[in-house]
Amino acid sequence: MGRSVQGTIGQKKLRQLLMAGASPAILAAHLIVILPSHAADITISSSITTGTVWSGTLNPNSNFTVTNSGTINTANAHGVTITGTAGSQLGTLLNNGRITTTAANGRAVFIQAGSVAALVNTGTISAPTYALWNAGSLGTMSNSGLIDGRLVNMSTIGAFTNTGTLTYTSFTWDNEAQIQTFTNSGLIYGDRAIYSQGTIGTLINARTGTIQGTINAITITGVGGINSIANSGLIIGNILNSGTITPTISGGTLTTIGTLTGTLGSIGTITSANAGLLFSAGNLYLNDNINVGTNTVTNAGASLRVTSALSITGTLMQSAGTIQIEPSAGRLVVNRPVSLTGGTVVSGLNSISNYIAGDYTIIAGAAGSNYTGLSLSTSTLTGASAATSISGNNVITTFNNNYVGGTLATLSNSGTISGSKTAT
User: Fold this and answer.
1) 110-120: pLDDT as tens digits
2) What is the spatial distance between Cα 270 and Cα 268, in angstroms, rounded to a whole number?
3) What angle do CA 326, 272, 199 make, to 5 degrees?
4) What is the pLDDT of residue 24?
5) Mean pLDDT across the stretch 325-333?
6) What's the confidence (pLDDT) of residue 415?
7) What is the model's pLDDT at position 173?
8) Is the full-model pTM beyond 0.85?
9) How high is the pLDDT of residue 412?
10) What is the average pLDDT across 333-347?
């Protein structure tokens, strides 16, 4: 193995010492001899059936690649074990092929110790239980392929990005420590798609992203939290926050609308009984009931669209932003006083809905509700005469005539219907 030399003096001075016949002792005082900082890379380009160890101690700063023709398919406990002493550094694990363990509680990729700069998967990583277990330090992780199995983070990940598919039956992404940035533009699916007992700085669900949980799409437990959730895509399933950090949710920009809804088109539930809930900015379609206990749901600048009858357990406040409610089917029923002192409530009329002359309550607040400073608006619909106003603790839209944009099961008339024949 070769060696490299690093001088503590300039090359000119070194030449002067050599020409002057300096002794080895003098030269040694000015030079540091170091071992190479980059060991041989590891490449798997064929099919192997034994687990592989990648050591930061034995192979510092090396890279590990599974090519598109490479496969690690083992019954051993771990497909790839990454280890090293404290402070040891490895480069990039790039999987273009397949890394699989068939062991019942095995780990396809096990970062046991040390530091890995990046994990990049464009192929398949799978296991009956754990696709990834990180107990070391992982700089970045990106997936554009398929990861089938639970991902567990017990330490730190700088940035995680998914444009592919993550799927597992239970607790798909289990974060028990820290992920600084979490970005999804693909699919994350499971009974609890994202389950965080630790902290996530920013969770970004982009326009093409779907986070879907048959029980909870996002679960936040323990003393940790998610500082902000930026959703321009689909979050399908309940959101449960049992921690004490208030989740902040923002939506899409311009014409992009982020969706919060239940599974199979049903109404979901957002629960944050110990902390409340904040909608900060952007466009959101809200199809979830909200339960914050005796805490507050605050809209500080988002544009919320509601087309279903939703309940809010807690106090509803708005200082800025917009709540747009379609009056034939949409309404917000709040069990505590409402305080909408800024922003706008829009009664969003729909041309394919039916409206019968009379009052439609679009926000029902408890006694003591306050709407001082709120702007009211009713969208224009040709053929419908309607206006929105405050009535006691409620916001109502009053229709002065009947409007039929869809179909009616029955039509009753107690007066006279008259007309004249017109030649055509």
Assistant:
1) 999 999 999 99
2) 7
3) 120
4) 56
5) 98
6) 78
7) 98
8) yes
9) 75
10) 98
140 has a pLDDT exceeding 80: yes
